[in-house]
Amino acid sequence: MKFLDKITNEWQRQWAMAWFLCGALALFWGFWLTTERGALDIAMLVVATIGLVCVVALAFRRNLSGNGLGITANLGEIAVQGRMGATGLMLAPMFYLITHLYGLFYWKKNQDGDGNMVPRDASVGVWLITGVFIAVGLAVFPWLNEQLQQYSFIESGSDAAVSLFGVDVSWYSINVIAFVLGVTAQTTMILRYSFSWGIWIVVNFVWLTVNLVNQNYIFAIQTMVYQINAFVGLYGWWKSSKLSNTN
Length: 247
Hints:
This protein is mainly alpha-helical. The protein contains 9 helices and 2 strands, in the order ααααααββααα. Strands 1-2 form a two-stranded antiparallel sheet. A hairpin with a 2-residue loop joins strand 1 and strand 2. Helix 2 runs antiparallel to helix 3 and helix 3 runs parallel beside helix 9. The relative contact order is 0.12. The mean pLDDT is 87.
């Protein structure tokens, strides 16, 4: 805990730089080894790099650099997906774009003396609403996705990705779970709930497991970089919410 206290306080800048360099190296490694390094690939690399700065800024509760760069990254992702013809896959970054726009003004109204957003604890009611949202999302999404197939959204299929406790889990199921949990995590994060980073940890764990099982080590490294940031964000937000409640 002492190390996390240092990272979330006086070592913030040094930690953010070291974390960003590791993430950028992982992204560039994947770009160099797995793409043809064309114009679209370069655009994807730039968008992903902006996303790195965005998520570490959000973990440290920075409004302009977090939500502002989030908007920039989402616009870039929308443009890239549209250029690739995956119009359905433009929906997620569009949703995230709207949340970052809202967060840009909402976080500004809830800042401490240093200009950082003040997170808050969730009540039992918020936990219940979040649980219901996830359950409804997992139930409704397959139907919704079926309606969006013509727009190249998440492709349905039964091909097994991993086997957990003897049960085969398909790529489609993993995509559905990750999408619903990702939307939930994003929404609760913009609403300033510290537990949102716990949901991001679950999402990252899902993709880390899949990447390791399928020997996608570059993407596994990238996911671990995001996972470390999620743990730092969870601790920093939780600690800040406790301090704000005592003041």
